[in-house]
Amino acid sequence: MTTASDRQPTVRLPQQASPTHDDVEVPLVESPPPPPVRRSRRRLVIAGLTVLVLAAGAGTAVTWALKGDVPRGVTVLGVDLGGLTRSEASAALRAHLAASPSVTADVEVQVEGKGTKLRPADVGLVVDVDATVDAAAEGRPALFGSRAVAPVVAVDADLLDAALRKGVGEVGTAMKPPAVVFTGLTPKAVHPEPGRGLDPRSSAEAVKAGWLSGKPVTVPLVESRATTTAEQVDRLVETVARPAVAAPLTITSEKGTLTVPPAAIAKSLVLTADKAGLIEPRIDPKKLRAAVAPRLAEIEAPAKDASFTFAGGKPKIIEGAAGTGLDLAGLAPQLLTAAQSGDSRTVAATLTTTAPAIGAAELEKLGVKEKVSTFTTKFTGGLSSPRSQNIVTAAKQVRGALVLPGKTFSLNKHTGERGYAQGYKDAPVIVGGNLQPGVGGGVSQFTTTLFNASYYAGLQDVEHKPHSYYFDRYPAVIESTIFWPDLDFKFKNDSPHGVLIDTAYTSNSITVSMWSTKVWDKVTTEWSARRNITSPPTITKPAGPKCIATGGLIGFTQDAFRLFHSGGKVVKREKFTWKYDPEPRFICGEAPAA
């Protein structure tokens, strides 16, 4: 039988001399037994497996936490976007916003105690979904808990500012802008004073921050101060304003010399502030031109536009001509520098060529080539009567008027006031239902003739008013009166071609014709029967220059239908209706005794 000691190795030592023994075999002392091999290996395996399991779990957790573009645990407006891709997060957020009433509900805003409500769509107030998802995608994932990300809100600051000002009205105090003003040739400093008011940027930030809170948003007022200070205004008085009007300016050119007196300089020197309260001195070329207009006429030759005339009863184009003039806008900076100089106050200018605004080629393209309508009315009293003279005067003023496509012709605007200074005379007019003498009487007949010419040309009626009483020299319903400045006649050229107005007169008639390119085959009128006929009353008025006796006219209501013909059929109808009052039978003199 083999024992444990038999398994231990022995060591044979070298022989040594011994007084008592020879060749003695000495066994080696036994070492402690090593630990059991199998148990140790088992523990290592278990430990290794544990590490692997933990590592695998950690990898799964990391994979879970890093899934998608938006880190885990991130929410926006309560919506969990964690683990989603950007497109998924955008879709989820948009779906939430579409279902949220607070996004479309009116926003209550308070400004210094005044309230108003704003519709988000009216001021461009929206959640910027893409920017919000970008913000949500930033940062580290959270394995535990959540992280709320505020939505990115956008608003149109200008629309918001306009809506607030309209909704709350006047708030705060306006900033007093700085300026330098002239009293004659004496400059005076106007010092700025700060104000408190709405600031578009501050208002936008307040509304963006408080919009989705569910509470009223308070918009602050911001103090505004002018960019140009009081000290700088005083300096402008001494360094710009006073030197500018100390002496005349001189502009030299090949056509002559223009002297700009101090008074004209004072009128054209602009020393007022912009919205920010900044004063930037400048010469206003339009104001300067107006101030020296009579002197400019001696140097400049204005351009002449191409125009129409009538030759042989037909329109003819007269070519325009170029003009020459001073470019005051280009000279303005030099004039400002010279105005502040104590030495040379002379500026050399080169005359520029100015082309006509309208050339012959432009007129050719308008298609003014044929007579598209003409209308004539008869007048009584002969050509020498005041009423006839007024008709002729108006006709001469209108002849040659060109109405471009899309433009509206106004008779009052074209002729201006029709008074004594313009050559008009006293003739019967209707004032307050009474027939009495008045300057310009009779022009209503020309107006009716012009109205019918535009009517039968198929042009759009914009404004006209028939007479209160019916006169048989006019077509019923389709006629028009006029009275400066309250009653006007207007028509719009709604055709693609130009419209040229021609007028002609005889000893007892006035004719208006329209030249253009035909749009309609023809335009005709159909009338309804008269209805609601009323008899005239008799009225006695005191005899005198203001009383005009009449025989009286019946009153009635009638319709007129304008028919537009094209391709052999009526393609459009327009209805005109008017109610005529009965014209009283006026008797000038004392009422008969009862």
From TrEMBL:
<feature type="transmembrane region" description="Helical">
    <location>
        <begin position="44"/>
        <end position="66"/>
    </location>
</feature>
<keyword id="KW-0812">Transmembrane</keyword>
<dbReference type="InterPro" id="IPR007391">
    <property type="entry name" value="Vancomycin_resist_VanW"/>
</dbReference>
<feature type="region of interest" description="Disordered">
    <location>
        <begin position="1"/>
        <end position="39"/>
    </location>
</feature>
<feature type="compositionally biased region" description="Polar residues">
    <location>
        <begin position="1"/>
        <end position="19"/>
    </location>
</feature>
<dbReference type="InterPro" id="IPR052913">
    <property type="entry name" value="Glycopeptide_resist_protein"/>
</dbReference>
<protein>
    <submittedName>
        <fullName>VanW family protein</fullName>
    </submittedName>
</protein>
<dbReference type="Pfam" id="PF04294">
    <property type="entry name" value="VanW"/>
</dbReference>
<keyword id="KW-1133">Transmembrane helix</keyword>
<feature type="domain" description="YoaR-like putative peptidoglycan binding">
    <location>
        <begin position="229"/>
        <end position="347"/>
    </location>
</feature>
<dbReference type="Pfam" id="PF12229">
    <property type="entry name" value="PG_binding_4"/>
</dbReference>
<dbReference type="InterPro" id="IPR022029">
    <property type="entry name" value="YoaR-like_PG-bd"/>
</dbReference>
<keyword id="KW-0472">Membrane</keyword>
